[in-house]
Amino acid sequence: SILIARNDSLTARADANLKVSGPVMSATVKGNVALTNSHFLKDIDLIPIGLPGRPAPEPIEDRPDYSIKTPPLRDWKFDLAIKTKDPFSIRGNLATGNAIVDLHLGGTGSHPELKGIVKLQGVEATLPFSRLDVTNGFLHFDPSDSFNPKIDLQGRSVIRDYTVRVYVYGDSLAPQAIFTSEPPLPQEEIISLLATGATRQELTGNSNVLAGRAAMLLVQQLYRKIFKKGQPTQSNSVFDRLQVDLGTVDPRTGREQATARFKVNENWVLIGDLGVGGEFRGQVKYLIRFH
Q1: 267-274: which pairs have CB atoms within 8 A and are 24 or more residues apart?
Q2: Residue 113: which H helix or E strand, with range?
Q3: Are strands 176-182 and 162-171 parallel, antiparallel or unpaired?
């Protein structure tokens, strides 16, 4: 394989079988390009909403220009099949996984045209208090707007006793998102749940809940900055499964308490409550989810 691209975020290698024919000033390039041993190391935010713990989204000032301005490549014609020989690796603090590429590059150097799909495989997106498993993800490239693919992404996240489903669609430069949950919540409540691990009603009802969420988020950020600097987030880490609530009200006594929940797996949850008087209560909960 040969190295075809390398920068701070991308390393791309490929096996190529190309044929160049015709005059130098207007040649035609045909053949196959098989991507192999390629990596994309960058924070890709799959959910187009502002969440704490994420870098602020960068405004899109100018669309990238991939056209070739200088002859003779400017006037060359391309007919290339671009596929992945092995999955294209995606690694970052916000998302990890692989991509399967099946594209065709046509047009000319001055007006390149991409057509085809990129399928996301085994992709997980990090959320402040959980993870989003991408169950179905595609990027659809159309020659009419080659470098602004259409997104078709569906994901699922389990936060506390809620199963949240996310659908992201639209152009990559201006994506949209729809959120649903089971048990049902309004979209605003689901976004609050994704952002803080609590609904708006819980946050407005007790300021200690928000303080506990902020403290937990700060601990996560410090841990990743000190011990996991430069490394992609690991699936199923302790912080993904641990939730601490401060200032919740014990329904039995009406007094405030601190609650810790640790998700052993998708069904078993360990719960510990510590009251203001020092009394402790432990529970084991088994969750049954209907799909």
Answers
A1: none
A2: strand 112-127
A3: antiparallel
Give the helix ranges, DSSP H, for the chain.
187-196, 200-205, 207-227, 238-241
Tell me if the pTM is above 0.70. Answer: yes
Q: Which two three-digit tokens encode residue 208?
A: 């200690």
**pLDDT 10s digits, 120-157:** 998 988 776 677 889 999 999 999 999 899 999 999 98
pLDDT in tens, 70-92: 999 999 999 999 999 999 998 87
The distance from CA 234 to its chain's CA centroid, rounded to whole angstroms, is 13
What type of residue is 221? Q
The pair of three-digit structure tokens given for residue 253, joined into one six-digit string: 């006594």
Residue reference for tokens 């303080």: 211
Go through the chain and tell me how many residues it has.
Answer: 291
* Maximum Cα interatomic distance, the chain, rounded to a whole number of Å: 87
Sign of the CA dihedral with 212 first, then 218, 222, and 225 last: positive
Are the beta carbons of 267 and 287 closer than 8 angstroms?
yes
Written as six digits, the tokens of 14 are 């490929």
Tokens 């390039």 sit at which residue? Answer: 29
